[in-house]
Design a protein that fits this description.
The structure holds 2 protein chains of 2 kinds. By secondary structure, chain A is an alpha+beta fold. Chain A has 5 helices and 5 strands. In chain B, helix 17 crosses helix 18. Classes of the chains: A alpha+beta, B alpha+beta.
Chain lengths: 155, 760
């Protein structure tokens, strides 16, 4: 039995019917065809599916879709500026060579974005903590941490 | 060379904007109209007879379109390096990842449900999970038809006279070392979509690292299935990590092809994370006996190694890793007398494959750990013994490698200086320093008949450039490196270059993204093509400007006379001139670069690579004697790269490789019980996170390799080659215990400390 839910997705109100058994990730990827949010493991260990819900970075693969009701959800598709420019964290990841295969990148962007939205001046430990749940096999994380630092330091 | 404006610059990766916005399309994201979803049923046991498979209930489930078993595989088709692996098994299963049956359904959920309805009766057989057991006389045969569990791949290298050299040695160190199973952990799991057209030509949407070889494999499969003279097109999606895992073709791909043939619909198979762990092919574990000697001055006299590799149940390209192990064994440091024998052994474990470094990390772990043991016996500082024996330009090694550029000494010195080797070594205060060096192929590796790569460059009448290359972008940045090379030659901007690299219908042949070869081979190929098209451009422009082509050059998209800068013409206009004139022509150039390297002869000699990459890693550790924990305080990775085409991307390879190496050294291990993987998830398999990153410096040493594009050599794999022995050597310096079995877990460190009486 599908149920109706209403939530805000990337600043647009979404009213839709969902199967309560779905995860938020399933709704995003399979139903809404927003494939920017990735599934790397499906059990909350790799962070590739990270989205921001009411300001918090959350693994959407574990998030029951019914919990989205009334909440404000931002995905990777929703953070480019209105002008079409990249968000400063996206720009920093590009400029710092922090992207290789790129599969972890959307999740990495969202975790970093949540941190930078929350803290004006995060420490290196804050930065590492914020992406500790985002696995990356390519980069060794060095350029990713530098990229996040560059945004934090530049403001 | 100093006037370079694109090469040598820290230019962001061309595909990074696509990836940071989530717009890049991976196989996971692909849908094709009418597509079905395929799922695979794997064996319950590592070794068993299949008594009965009943697919009746699964076939009746609404939404199921096909169920296949081994009986449906035409003409006994088998794939793999020794053609010993059927995509769906009949009669017997030989490993716990053996494919028993497969389903195609209208949704992934229904396909999954159908798998549960397939009933299989097994008779479990005793398995062999240790290669040493498998080699024992009378051991049950994994593949009865081969009469032995030892693969008929005679890996043996002999140079000089090891026995004589032993007698002449002042010091000899010998020991045994072992390494574990580890896996690639690509964040994007394996997957494909197989689709046939009405004439049975196949299109594979794939994330292969070897499009041209995969194309060939699939053509062979189609032929065996009775489909002769068909075409295969491979379209690569954006690839979510490679590291060697996609250097072969796999059962799931043939299963997707068979399901697509049966259903006449496109079939997609994408691995779950669980499958990615247990059903892909990891780096094999090894058991190594090593003996090395030196004279009284520390000069190496011989190296003798015997290795046993757990091949697992089937043979892939991974069984050829001993060929690359030979690179450090014969040629890391100057040593004239060499003996190496390796046996790859069938067991009922998962089967092994290529992984970044291709055997080199396993061999280097033994060589470089044992070198420290030898240095201690000889009373020579480990740094000094490495300096004394370091490779040099102009050397010809016992395997007939011709060493061209070589920055090994510079790398060793960078490590020593940056670590404060003299200040920190030998304190035995729970802190210690260690180092290890590396050699790897740096100018491709001729393991296949051709080591080539083709490039086509065409210009359009807006002055924009399409570079069509055989090489694959697997995240390493080949697209950007090739663009930098072409932009440098043509005097245009990177943004005016579009790289097309993902479609065998369009792209030229290439042997694949392996052997750290892409910058070297695809770079040289693109360089040659760029020079050819530049000559055409200058010839046309010369006519228009009334100048000699030799006096023309291109900068910022404008052809100009080097004698008179007033005489110039934009590229776009040159192009329009040729397109819009009577008897017009296209501006297109092609170039196939196949490096002048050599296949090994039957004695495993030959100049495998046109040039060799060198490096040294140094590490300072602190060992907690209460917990056995090893903390890395400082990590230096110095690499001779010839020339850094893009230092930023290059450092990314070093950082990424280095952390994979740290994972290999300190934590990662696939745990099998009776052939069944017990830790196939990110909770239990300890892949490093951002919090595991130590302070690390990537040091680039440039040696200007004459055969490389703008002087460049390969860097894809070297970053993880010497990591484990550098750490093991540092631990020994810190607390006096040597861990010879990877990974170096706290438990092993504590046990070793107890055994040595260093702790109660």
């Amino acid at each position: 039995m599908k149920k109706a839910i209403t939530f805000t997705l990337n600043n647009e109100v979404i009213e839709t019917e969902v199967d309560p058994k779905w995860t938020l990730l399933y709704l995003l990827r399979e139903v809404l065809e927003m494939t920017g949010t990735k599934e790397g493991c499906g059990y909350g260990e790799c962070g590739a599916c990270t989205v921001i819900i009411n300001g918090q970075a959350v693994d959407s693969c574990l998030y029951p879709v019914m919990e989205a009701e009334g909440r404000k959800i931002t995905t990777i598709e929703g953070i480019m500026l209105k002008s079409g420019e990249l968000d400063p964290i996206q720009q920093a990841l590009v400029q710092n060579g922090a992207v290789q295969c790129g599969f972890c990148t959307p999740g990495m962007v969202m975790s970093a974005k949540a941190l930078l939205d929350e803290k004006e001046r995060p420490t290196e430990d804050d930065i590492k903590d914020s992406i500790a749940g985002n696995l990356c096999r390519c980069t060794g994380y060095v350029n990713i941490v530098d990229a996040i630092k560059s945004v934090a330091g530049g403001r | 060379m100093s006037s370079l404006t694109k090469v040598g610059q820290r230019i962001p990766k061309k595909d990074a904007p696509l990836k940071v916005t989530g717009a890049a399309i991976y196989i996971q994201d692909m849908k094709v109209p009418g597509m079905l979803y395929g799922k695979i049923l794997y064996s319950k046991y590592a070794h068993a007879k299949i008594l009965k498979i009943d697919t009746g209930k699964a076939e009746k489930l609404a939404g199921v379109r096909a169920v296949l078993t081994g009986a449906d595989v035409p003409n006994n088709f088998k794939f793999g390096f020794l053609k010993d692996n059927p995509p769906l098994k009949t009669g017997k299963v030989l490993s716990a990842r053996d494919e028993i049956a497969a389903v195609a359904a209208i949704s992934a959920e229904i396909a999954e449900e159908a798998l549960d309805l397939i009933e299989v009766e097994y008779e479990e057989l005793p398995g062999i999970f240790d290669p040493l057991d498998a080699m024992k006389e009378g051991a049950p045969l994994i593949h009865e038809e081969f009469k032995s569990n030892v693969l008929k791949l005679p890996w043996k290298l002999v140079a000089g006279d090891v026995e004589e050299a032993k007698k002449a040695s002042a010091y000899i160190a010998e020991d045994s070392f072992s390494t574990q199973w580890v896996t690639h952990c690509c964040l994007g799991t394996s997957g494909c979509i197989a689709a046939f057209d009405m004439n049975n030509n196949l299109t594979m949407y794939s994330n292969t690292q070897i499009p041209s070889l995969a194309q060939n494999d699939y053509l062979e499969a189609l032929k065996t299935f009775g489909l002769k003279n068909k075409r295969v097109r491979i379209i690569q999606c954006v690839i979510g990590g490679g590291f060697g895992s996609k250097l072969d073709t796999y059962a799931y791909e043939y299963i997707a092809i068979l399901l697509a043939l049966k259903t006449r619909k496109p079939v997609k198979i994408v691995f779950s994370r669980e499958e990615e762990f247990f059903a892909t092919s990891p780096r094999q574990c090894t058991i190594t006996k090593i003996s090395q000697g030196c004279d009284k001055d520390g000069r190496l006299t011989f190296r003798e190694m015997e290795m046993v590799l757990d091949n697992g149940a089937y043979v892939s390209w991974g069984a050829t890793t001993p060929s690359v192990m030979m690179v450090p064994i014969s040629s890391l440091y100057k040593v004239q007398n060499i003996k190496y024998v390796a046996k790859c052994v069938y067991t009922n474990n998962t089967y092994s494959q290529a992984m970044r470094g291709y055997g080199n990390p396993q061999a280097t772990f033994a060589i470089e750990s044992c070198l420290d043991q030898l240095a201690e016996k000889a009373g020579i500082d480990p740094l000094e013994i490495r300096r004394i024996n370091a490779n040099e330009p102009g050397e010809i090694t016992p395997q007939n490698f011709r060493i061209t550029s070589c920055g090994m000494k510079e790398c060793i010195d960078e490590v020593a200086n940056r670590l404060d080797w003299k200040g920190k070594r030998g304190k035995h205060n729970n802190r210690g320093v260690g180092m290890a060096s590396l050699i790897h192929v740096g100018g491709a590796a001729r393991v296949y008949k051709s080591d080539g790569c083709g490039t086509i460059i065409k210009m359009d009448d807006n002055g924009k450039v399409d570079v069509i290359t055989g090489s694959s972008e697997i995240g390493q940045g080949s697209e950007t490196i090739i663009s930098q090379i072409v932009a440098e030659v043509l005097g245009i901007n990177i943004d005016d270059i579009n790289v097309i690299n993902n479609d065998t219908d369009v792209c030229p042949w290439d042997v694949g993204a392996h052997a750290s070869r892409t910058t070297f081979v695809a770079g040289n190929s693109a360089l040659g093509a760029a020079r050819k098209i530049k000559a055409q451009i200058l010839e046309v422009a010369a006519k228009n400007l009334g100048e000699d082509p030799q006096s023309l050059d291109i900068k910022d998209g404008v052809v100009f006379s080097t004698k008179d800068k007033e005489k110039n013409i934009p590229l776009s206009k040159v192009l329009r001139k040729v397109h819009y004139s009577l008897g017009g022509r296209m501006l297109v150039a092609e170039n196939f670069y196949d490096p002048p390297n050599e296949n090994f002869d039957q004695n495993f000699r030959g100049n495998l690579s046109v040039s060799y990459a060198y490096g040294a890693h140094g590490v300072e550790v602190e060992v907690d004697k209460d917990t056995g924990q090893v903390k890395i305080l400082n990590y230096i990775a110095a690499h001779d790269v010839g020339k850094a085409i893009n230092p930023m991307l290059l450092e990314g390879q070093i950082y990424g490789g280095g952390l994979q190496g740290i994972g290999y050294a300190l934590g990662e291990r696939m745990i099998f019980e009776k052939g069944v993987l017990k830790n196939g998830n990110f909770l239990d398999y300890k892949m490093p996170t951002a919090k595991d990153v130590p302070p690390v410096q990537a040091v680039i040493v440039e040696t200007d390799e004459q055969a490389g594009p703008f002087g460049a050599k390969g860097i894809g794999e070297p970053g993880l080659v010497p990591t484990a022995p550098a750490i093991a050597n540092a631990i020994y310096d810190a607390v006096g215990v040597r861990i010879k079995d990877l990974p170096i877990t706290p438990e092993k460190v504590l046990r070793a400390l107890q055994e040595k009486g260093k702790i109660a």
